[in-house]
Design brief:
By secondary structure, this protein is an alpha+beta fold. Helix content is 28%, strand content 34%. The strands form three sheets. The protein has a six-stranded mixed β-barrel. The chain has a four-stranded mixed beta sheet with strand order 10-7-9-12, with no helix packed on it. Strands 8-13-11 form a three-stranded antiparallel beta sheet, with no helix packed on it. Strand 2 and strand 3 form a beta hairpin.
Length: 236
């Protein structure tokens, strides 16, 4: 994995309004966690960080560039970011310092390639997991793990233990969980008639409810003359 440079500088955490001023200047307040658990408050360029995040995986190694000797040339990965919901602007970031000589555990997304054989029979490719945790050296973190779904037929399942990982990458998992499968088309086909039957039953029920009051009204109207006739007979 290639590294990218990111300019940064140390920042003060007080007064509280300083954070807002940093954001107004187009920078992002951030924190870098060291190998020994220490945390350093820093600020990075907002536009520069957004470009790094949008064009690369979060696991890409960044090399800090700073006038501070204890920050310059430090290698970090982006652990977390906070964004504004509408504009998508980054308002805070967390970085984690890494040692390039020691293995690191990170989540990496799956990338499904090929066309599953079961799709020709009407099956539907259904990913069950979107990422996997791996362990490797920081500079060897891949952008993604490719999963070839070509041989999958309907009901076939690929488990994490059956996937092919590069020799320098070790997957981390406690249980042999399923990653992707091909679902049969019967799920969609059965659901449609069932929904149509339910709608038909609801329509018939509504029609029956609408007809009942009319029948009652006719019965009542038909009974009135009969009652009147009996009353007329008594008067006669």
């Amino acid at each position: 994995m290639e590294t990218v440079d990111l300019a940064c500088e140390k920042r003060d955490v007080r007064p509280k309004g300083l954070v807002n001023r940093i954001r107004r200047e187009g920078r992002v307040p951030a924190v870098m966690y060291g190998n020994h658990g220490s945390a350093v408050a820093i600020a990075v360029g907002g536009a520069e960080l957004k470009a790094r995040v949008s064009t690369a995986s979060r696991q890409r190694i960044m090399r800090l560039k700073s006038d501070s000797p204890d920050l310059n040339d430090k290698h970090v990965i982006l652990k977390d970011i906070q964004k504004l919901p509408v504009s998508g602007d980054i308002v805070h970031a967390d970085f984690y310092e890494v040692d390039l000589t020691k293995p690191l555990r990170v989540p990496v997304p799956f990338r499904f390639i090929g066309r599953a054989a079961g799709i020709a029979d009407g099956g539907i490719l259904s990913p069950l997991e979107r990422q996997v945790e791996i362990e490797c050296l920081p500079l060897e973190i891949p952008e993604s793990i490719e999963v070839d779904v070509t041989p999958l037929k309907i009901h076939d399942v690929l488990h994490v233990s059956t996937l092919q990982f590069p020799a320098n990458i070790r997957p981390i998992f406690d249980t042999d969980y399923p990653v992707v499968t091909v679902m049969p088309p019967t799920v969609a086909e059965v659901a449609a008639p069932a929904a149509a039957a339910a709608e038909g039953a609801a329509a018939e029920g509504a029609a029956a409810e609408g007809a009942a009051p009319g029948a009652g009204e006719k019965a009542a109207e038909g009974g009135k003359p009969a009652a009147g006739a009996k009353e007329g007979g008594k008067k006669g």
